[in-house]
Description:
This protein is an alpha/beta fold. It has a single domain, classed as 3-Layer(aba) Sandwich (UDP-N-acetylmuramoyl-L-alanine:D-glutamate ligase). It has 10 helices and 14 strands. Strands 4-1-7-8-9-12-13-14 form an 8-stranded mixed beta sheet, sandwiched between helices. It has a 4-stranded mixed beta sheet with strand order 3-2-5-6. α1 crosses α8 (277-290) and α8 (277-290) packs antiparallel against α9. The radius of gyration is 18 Å and the shape is globular. The chain starts with a strand and ends with a helix. 51% of the residues are buried.
Amino acid sequence: MYDILTIGRSSIDLYANDIGAAFPDIESFGAFVGGCPTNISVGVQRLGLRAALLTAVGEDPVGEFLLKFLKDEGVETRFIPCKPEHRTSAVVLGVEPPDRFPLIYYRDNCADIELTIDDVLAAPIAESRAVLISGTGLSKEPSRSATLYAAEKARSVGCRVFLDLDFRADQWHDPRAFGVVVRSALRYIDIAIGTEEEIKAATLTDLSQLTIEHSQISNPTIEGDMANAIETLLGAAPGPEALIVKRGIEGADVHLVSDDVIHAAPFPVEVYNTLGAGDAFASGFIYGNLSGWDWEKSARLGNATGAIVVTRHGCANFMPTMPEVDEFVAERGGW
């Protein structure tokens, strides 16, 4: 029995070792593991849940690198297929705190976007308490149909279904398609998690509202009314019971379908690297939610795990354990 099955992208993440250097001046990189559902699987496993991961790797040394790390972490990997004609994904990332973190995806012919319905049928959905899907898994076929099928199947057997919006504009042929597909998936979702930009992207219909800088191509700025975006996503029938808004240094808000809003206060820290903080938040929130914690405490745990990771160098490799979280929170006055 697994507490959660996470589904979607995985990658080798090459993080700049030269902190603060402009991208052309980087001299070396550290090799870590990344990808939204992969990071979350490691994050919840380190906190104490039992996690399985459904992604895909190529028949290459990078895939071996990922699988070894995941096995060492205790994440269940036996449902991860190998796609011999495709490559394990990669991401290259610069670190220029406090607010510049350029990243470049290498996902042409990547393995995880080749997940199929057959791969989902072989995965332990019925043996899991919850399933998490992510936005990038919906960006292309055959992964799109496989991801939707996984959510549909999970809902039919009584699993709780989480959606991490995970909007990466450069992974979509048209950024407006992200919203179209996400809105069609809401009928299967219990809890959705995203930033303000991701939530506005999920309701985007006008590309004039979208601004993408070259150095931040997968993290665009989107104009629009946040209140209307939240109302649209929670107004889907059927749809999620809660929408969790990650607000960085301002903490997090839990918007319920009842129109109640619950604020979770942040844990201020000095930012080293924001990349991976959102996945760390999701890990903490999901741990709390599946452990029976209330909305505020679950989101506070997400704030704590996210705050810890922004002080560290990367994503999956730097997710905190529960003793680390307890110490961090205690030093800042407790829950």
